[in-house]
Design a protein that fits this description.
Layout lengths: L1 E8 L2 E8 L2 E10 L3 E10 L2 E11 L2
Antiparallel strand pairs: 1-2, 2-3, 3-4, 4-5
């Protein structure tokens, strides 16, 4: 398994995880102090299998 993260800027984190031919890429954006959005892309053999976008409330 390979896992990496980077900060695009002070409000955006990027995550990338690879294992067994699958790649999971996520970007998480903070919106004020209460919310964040998350975009996830799951790929297998170089082909996108699923893209999801979520709005999350921080507790």
């Amino acid at each position: 398994m390979i896992a990496q993260f980077s900060m695009r800027d002070e409000m955006t984190m990027r995550l990338r995880t690879e294992y067994s031919g699958n790649v999971f890429e996520e970007e998480i954006w903070l919106i004020w102090t209460q919310y964040r959005t998350r975009q996830s892309i799951i790929s297998r053999a170089g082909e996108e299998q699923m893209i999801g976008q979520y709005l999350e409330t921080r507790i």
